[in-house]
Amino acid sequence: MYEIDKEAFAAFLAQQRREKGWTQKDLAERLYVSDKAVSKWERGLSLPDISLLIPLADCLGVGVTELLEGRRMAEAMEAEDVELLVKKTLSLSEENPEQAKKRRRERTILFAVVAVIGVLESLACGYLQSRVGRGEEFGALFVFELLGLFFGAYFWCFMKEKLPGYYDENRINYYTDGFLEIHLPGVSFNNTNWPRVVKAFRIWAVVTIVTAPLLNLMLTLLPIPEGARLACLMAALVLFLMGLFLPVYLAAGRERQKTEEEEKRRKWSILIVAGVCAIMLAVFGIAGGTGNLNSHLRVGYASSSTLQKWTARYHLLTGTEAHTLRPRQEDYLVTVVTEAGTLFMEIQDETGTVFSESEIQTGTYPVRLEGKTRVTVKAAGHKGSFAVAPEEGQ
Question: Which pairing describes strands 297-299 and 302-305: parallel, antiparallel, or unpaired?
Answer without folding.
Answer: unpaired
